[in-house]
Structures are given as structure tokens and as C-alpha cells.
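note to self: dont lose this again. the chain is below, predicted strucutre after it. 209 aa total, dont forget to put it in the shared folder this time
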Amino acid sequence: MSFLEKIQEHKKTIILVAVFLAIIILSIIFIFPSERVVEEEIVFTPVPATEEDLRLMVAQMTNLTDLVNKLNTEFSYRERDDKTVRLPKEFLTYRGGNKLDFAVFSAFVLNEHQLGEIALIRYRYLMNEDEGQKNIETGIVFRGEAMPPQYLRFGSEGVFAIPYGWSYQDLFQVEEERTGKTIIDYQAFLLWPPIPNEENLWPEEWYQR
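---
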């Protein structure tokens, strides 16, 4: 039997061996690459905002609609564990923050344009009614002359301006229908003036619903 005849006779076996070896080689390449590509973590390096930067940004937010649009397109929600607040220039530097940071910045912009009365509102609701666990939601209420009262809600899903009626009880009803949670108590106080700080942003007294 010639060499070619032997190859023809064992053709299937040769093909199977070749496929097996190819699989082994490919596995080695993917499992043990000669050069591993390491993904570098993208680190946000804030550039300190100036007073002029803040002035120019505020000038682009002359009404409630512009404010909400800017916050949703140019700023990011980032939860933080501490109770410190980023005042407007720092908020602009970091291009975002948590709910309290968004609330303080929004109130600052609305006050700069003298669009109406602004108050920060913070309410507590039951997360687990059986265990009595409470969670806190923070937003601002805005009452201007040209529109009905609005509630600004902040979170990872975005910033929303919601008409709520003419009282806090109306607002609580809207929020309870939205969340399915029971609101227990709340705090509400004016912003700009006074200038927010760690003391006046966290009063001790809560009002029962």
C-alpha cells in the first residue's frame, strides 16, 4: 500500500486529530494569552470651577425647564454616604452629587433668578412596615408666580419637576401613589437665604404627617 493510500485510509482519523489539536491550541491562546489586556479604571479628575464658571452656568438656567434639562444632560447623580453638602461651585466642579447636592444647587439657581419661593423638603417613609424601617427622600418645592407649585425630585433615574397641588399633604399623596410607601413625617425649610450648611440642612425636628 502506497503512502497516499495509507493517508486516504486514515483520512477521518487525521482530520479528527487535527481538529482536536486546533481546539487545544486555541484554548491555550485564550486561557493563557501572551499579553493580557488590562482595563484601566477611568478616574474622574475634577477641574475646580471658578465663580465665572458658576455664573455662566446659572445664566443658562433662566427657568425651571432649562434647569431640569441642564441637570439631566450635564450632571450625574452619585450617591455619597456622608451628610456633607456640595455647595454650588463644588457641585459644578464634580458635575453632580447626591440628592441633597442636587437640591441645594437647584435652589441656588432658582433663587439667583428670583423665580419664586424655594424650600428643601425631606420626608421619611416606611420601607418595611412590619419592621418599621424608615428611609429618607430629599427634594425641593418651588412656588413661582407663573406656574403652580412644583416638586423637584432627584435620583439615579433623573431629575423631574412634578406639579403637586397647593399643600404638602397634596405632595405626600402624589408621592405615596408613585412609590406605594407610607410617608410618616417630614422637614421643610427655606433655602437661599439662608446659605446652606451642615447645621441648618439637618434640623432635629420632624413634623408628623
